[in-house]
Each structure stands twice: as structure tokens, then as C-alpha cells.
Amino acid sequence: MGSPESQTLREMIKKQREDATTKTLAEKRQAMDEMSESLFDLEDDVKLEKTEMRGVQCEWVTIQGCSEEKVILYLHGGGYSRGSIFSHRHLAADLSRLANSKALVVDYRLAPEHPYPAALEDALAVYKELLKNVSPENIAIAGDSAGGNLTLVTMLALKDEGLPLPKAAVLMSPWTDMKLSGKSYQERAESDPWLTNEAVENFAQDYAVNHDRAHHLLSPLYGDLAGLPPLRVHVGKDEILMDDSLAFVEKAKQAGVDAEAKVWEDMFHIFTFFGRVMPEGRKSTEELGNFLHEAFHK
């Protein structure tokens, strides 16, 4: 059994999922931002600065005293249809503090208004703009859930184009298979308080539309993973995306990538997101942030 804090959050998430069935998409987006606003207060030494890169809205997250030469490009989760700078800036800030870096959170376009490849185009545009002033050795990419998917497909697209890849990547409960083929989609359906198979299928339909979901820029699990940078994956044992993480890391290892997955007992989808209010999420954030610190500063 997880910590008391995790049990409280599990019940809160279940209720939010039930309440969401009567909400419009706009209301769901607002609810995600409001949840973060109510739970996560940023410290006084965190500076936020809006910017635009090649037409894509972003936000710099800078921690006083941390290196401004190293950059974590943060790609938020939300099923490609919700999530924002506001909902995820706390996690970008926490990883930056641990990694001794700053972060750039990307407000990429969302489905269904902007289906594939809109989000990928935005992430690539921002990364390419970063490369004008920052060495790839000083860039890492991080993402949770659909943002984990976007992290991976961005790197695969960069590889396709022959462009330099980032130094490292961290992924929290990444969605790697839009075909939903992992056994955990069935085996963890009752234990996952956040995601349902129906919800993930709807996310896939809204984003992929009529494209082949097995394409490597939609489902990185089916891509050529050779040459990807060192990466670490954290996933909860109680979530339907568990097999997405494990299958991807196993394939990455077979391709020669320095890849490791950690499965957290009794944890739910993107539990790391709640690192400020539950100990398991805090420990996960610390481990991933320390990995980035080592990658950046060794």
C-alpha cells in the first residue's frame, strides 16, 4: 500500500475522473490547470518568463542560483488534448532545481483542434530554435504521459533528419504505443484511478485521426531506437501504461541505448507529477532530477 498521501490523491483522482464525464473539453482543460494551481505553489526564487519560439508559445522557468547554460525542454502530458504551461511548470521547476539547470516548457498545440503532427511540429520547432544558442550537450528533454510520447517521437524525428540529439531524456509514465497493445491495458484497468482504456483510445483517435498508429512518430515503440541518448523511465505498477514503459525500455536496451525503467509499487499514472504533495512522487522526482544533473555536469 502506498503512503497515506498517495491514498488521498488516488481518491481525489478517481473523483475527478468521475466528474469529468459531464465536463466539456474546455472545462477539463481548466480543471487540470486549477488542480495544479491549488496543489503546487512555486518558491520565491523561481522566475517565470513567457517567450515565443518560431511561433510556439513557451515559458522559461529559471531557478535563482542554478545554471542557465543547461536547459530541460519540458513537454507536458494530458493526452495531447489538455495540459499546459500552467499545469506542469511546478514539475519543470523541481527537475531544474535538482539538475542545476533552467527549463523551457512548451505550450504545444492540442488535439482535437490540432491533430498530428501539430504537437510534434511545435516541439521540433522549439528544439531547433534552442540549438541556435545552446549546444545539444546542454539540452535534455523531459515529458510525462503524452508528453513522454512527444519526448520520444521528437528525438526519433531529429534522428530521421540527421540533427543532433539531446544529452539525455527522462520520461514519466510515457505513452509509447497508440495501438494500446500492452497487456497492462487489461490487467491494470481496475487499479488505475486516472486512465481508462476508453479515454486513451479517445486520445489516440483525436490526435492520430486516420494516420497509421504504428508509425514511429505516433508510437515510438515501433521505431528504430538505436542512437537515442541515455534515458530513464518511471512508471507506476497500478497503471494501464505500465507495459508501454517496459516494452519500450526493453527494445531500447536491445538497440544499445542506455535505458532503464523503474516500476513503483502501488503507484498510479504520472504519480511523479504529485512530487510536492506525496513522498513517492518526491522520491521519483529526485531520482530523475539527479540523473539529469549527472548527465549535465559529470
Automatic annotation (TrEMBL):
Pfam families, sorted: Abhydrolase_3
Region of interest (Disordered), ranges: 1-22
Bias (Basic and acidic residues) ranges: 11-22
GO molecular function, one term: triacylglycerol lipase activity
Entry annotation: catalytic residues: S145
SUPFAM superfamilies noted in UniProt: alpha/beta-Hydrolases (SSF53474)
Residue span, Alpha/beta hydrolase fold-3 domain: 72-272
InterPro entries, per database record: AB_hydrolase_3, AB_hydrolase_fold, GDXG_lipolytic_enzyme, Lipase_GDXG_HIS_AS, Lipase_GDXG_put_SER_AS
Annotated keywords: Hydrolase
This protein's record includes keyword Hydrolase: yes
Protein origin, superkingdom: Bacteria
Key word S-adenosyl-L-methionine present: no
Similarity comment: family membership: Belongs to the 'GDXG' lipolytic enzyme family.
Protein name, per record: Alpha/beta hydrolase fold-3 domain-containing protein
